[in-house]
């Protein structure tokens, strides 16, 4: 009986720690709007409004950016490798020269985004839900459909 109680308490504690770890992290002072060049490796920024901010040359490798509003945001030269951008709003974002290798763009909206020179090798998208800029050849750029 005692062992079962201890296991339940340990389980609850581990679940609490996991849930706290899933929360959104606080960005450094002044960001947004000035986030250029920041090191934000594995940051959890889900569902934030970061529209019109400057994230140029920021390192967002493996960041959790689910549902983030990046509309009209400067992400020029940003590193977004392995970032989870499921459901992100990237309309009219400046992604020129961004490194987006192996990022997840399921349900992301990139309508009007500038992807000139962006590296999309292995970037995942879902054909039915990801919206690309008009005329942009995402397959030629290296994006691969989610199976």
Structure description:
With 147 residues, the protein is low in regular secondary structure. The protein is 14% helix and 3% strand. The chain is built from one helix and two strands; from the N terminus they run H-E-E. The protein has one helix at residues 2-21, and strands at residues 124-125, 144-145. Strands 1-2 form a two-stranded parallel ribbon.
Query: Based on DSSP secondary structure assignment, what is the total number of beta strands?
Result: 2
Structural class, by secondary structure, is little secondary structure
The description of the largest β-sheet is: 2 strands, parallel
Strand order of the largest sheet: 1-2
**Shape, principal axes of CA atoms:** globular
Which blocks of ≥5 consecutive residues have pLDDT under 50?
12-21
Q: How many helices does DSSP assign?
A: 1
Averaged pLDDT, please?
Answer: 90
Q: CA-to-CA gap between the ends?
A: 46 Å
> How large, in whole angstroms, is the Cα Rg?
18 Å
Helix proportion of residues, in percent? 10-25%
Order of helices and strands: HEE
The fraction of residues in strands falls at: under 5%
Provide a short characterization of the protein structure:
The protein is mostly loops. Helices cover 14% and strands 3% of the residues. The longest helix is centred in the N-terminal third of the chain and has 20 residues, at 2-21.
Present the secondary structure layout:
Blueprint: H1 2-21, E1 124-125, E2 144-145
Which short descriptors sum up this protein?
little secondary structure
